[in-house]
Specification:
The protein has about 260 residues and is of the alpha/beta class. The chain has one domain (about 5-265): Alpha/Beta hydrolase fold, catalytic domain (Rossmann fold). Helices cover about 40% and strands about 15% of the residues. It has helices at about 40-45, 75-80, 85-100, 100-110, 125-135, 155, 170-175, 185, 200-215, 245-260; strands at about 5-10, 10-15, 25-30, 55-60, 120-125, 140-145, 190-195, 220-225. It has an eight-stranded mixed beta sheet, sandwiched between helices. Helix 2 (about 75-80) packs across helix 3 (about 85-100). It is globular and about 55 Å long.
Length: about 260
């Protein structure tokens, strides 16, 4: 197994895992969780997808990992307390999506990846990023996958304490991030694997079933026994040994992307 490569792509930190063979190879891009693993390096350790004949480039979300303000999570936690949707979840999601085209161009300039369609993968809030790439951009994608994803942003907001004070603007935002409602657009883009832990938050798990049913042909659900929401132990910032449940997720992702890699060419 070759060593990870770390760097930045148009200002976005990444941890890249190369395929075993030299030469150009397809690209799979990931976005991590806000729960553990909550950095690109930690997500790479949790779901490395070793053995795939593809580059796996794990991108860091804004306000996380190398982009934590002052090197700690305090600033991000304060934004969550201030306004979980409009000050935290939505800005992180929008920035991650909007910075991706330039980051993708930079990745292709730095690494020997081919110029074909890419794979996209996200966990939790990172899953919403991957779904937004599918539903809202024209970037060619050969396959997508999400793990314990924020499929309906209203469900994600509901996981935080208190009743969220929705107004006209925040209602519009949260409705725009309901990917069950946007399933028709997702369905036309690429095959989609939806991984759901049997011990994930019940609302997120229900959304996973709803998304697979709404997308229909081309979407598959993979349930993981004993998997709660996180894929790693706290604090989840540095790479850590792979947990048994994460190993099952990793195996499912590896099988899924291997099946669809032929379409990447």
């Amino acid at each position: 197994m070759r060593s990870p490569i770390t760097g930045t792509a148009a200002g976005v930190p990444f941890t890249a895992l190369p395929p075993a063979a030299d030469g150009p190879a397809p690209l799979i891009v990931t976005w991590h969780m806000l729960d553990a693993p909550r950095s690109d390096a930690a997500f790479a350790a949790a779901v490395p997808m070793n053995g795939l004949p593809a580059w796996r480039v794990h991108l860091g979300l804004p306000m996380c990992g190398a982009r934590m303000v002052g090197g700690s999570m305090d600033a991000g936690l304060e934004l969550l307390r201030k306004d979980v949707l409009m000050a935290a979840l939505y800005p992180i999601l929008v920035q991650a999506t909007e910075e991706f085209p330039a980051a993708l161009e930079s990745i292709r300039a730095q690494l020997p990846v081919d110029d074909g369609p890419i794979g996209v993968l996200g966990g939790s809030l990172g899953g919403a990023v991957a779904l937004r790439i599918l539903a809202g951009t024209g970037i060619p994608v050969f396959a997508g996958a999400v793990v314990n994803a924020a499929i309906r942003m209203r469900s994600a907001v509901g996981l935080f304490p208190g009743d969220y004070p929705y107004d006209t603007e925040s209602e519009k935002v949260v409705d725009s991030l309901d990917f069950v409602a946007r399933a028709g657009t997702v369905a036309g883009r690429a095959p989609l694997l939806v991984i759901s832990g049997e011990r994930d938050h019940p609302t997120l798990r229900a959304d996973a079933f709803d998304l697979v049913n709404a997308v229909g042909e081309g979407a598959e659900l993979l349930s993981i026994r004993e998997l709660a929401h996180p894929l790693a132990d706290e604090p989840g910032i540095e790479p850590a040994p792979q947990l048994p449940q994460a190993r099952e997720v990793d195996a499912g992702l590896t099988t899924w992307f291997r099946r669809h890699l032929a379409d990447a060419g």
